[in-house]
Design a protein that fits this description.
Its cofactor is Mg(2+). This protein is of the alpha+beta class and 131 residues long. It has a single domain, classed as Alpha-Beta Complex (Nucleoside Triphosphate Pyrophosphohydrolase). Helices cover 21% and strands 46% of the residues. The chain has 3 helices and 8 strands. Strands 1, 2, 3, 4, 5, 6, 7 and 8 form an 8-stranded mixed sheet that branches. The longest helix is centred in the middle third of the chain and has 13 residues. The radius of gyration is 14 Å and the shape is globular.
Length: 131
């Protein structure tokens, strides 16, 4: 079990997600990852946004916590600089990693209910608050 920090980036009725293709499954996740030693959940979200997306963010309030193989923290955040899709984390550079593909993208909020997004409860909360 590992704690994770994730970023929720919203803009123009869209949210940034990572499209995963792993073991024959296609699903979507919020950008984020494991909290490293000495790191807080919000700092993990900030680091992971840079690694996975290629953007620097300002982390705002905690949007929610989900218990799944450890506690996952989700933070509302704003992009300060950078361009989505320019991340250079190990997901993109380690060819021996063998954990499927990662494709960062903007997804319309109203599409969240028709895609396989994990965790679903965070997506539902976003849709509820923005409807």
């Amino acid at each position: 079990m590992r704690k994770r920090g994730s970023a929720i980036l919203l803009e123009n009725n869209k949210v940034v997600l990572i499209k995963r293709n792993r073991d024959g499954q296609i699903y979507y996740v919020f950008p984020g990852g494991g909290i490293e030693k000495g790191e807080t959940p919000d700092l993990a979200a900030k680091r992971e946004a840079f690694e996975e997306l290629g953007v620097n963010i300002n982390v705002n309030e905690c949007f929610g916590k989900v218990e799944y193989n450890g506690t996952q923290y989700f933070f509302l955040a704003d992009i300060v600089e950078g361009e989505i899709g320019t991340g250079m984390g190990e997901e993109f550079t380690d060819t021996n990693r063998n954990r499927g593909t990662y494709e960062p993208m903007w997804v319309e909020i109203d599409k969240l209910s028709i895609i396989d997004i994990r965790p679903k409860e965070v997506a539902e909360k976003i849709q509820f608050l923005l409807s």
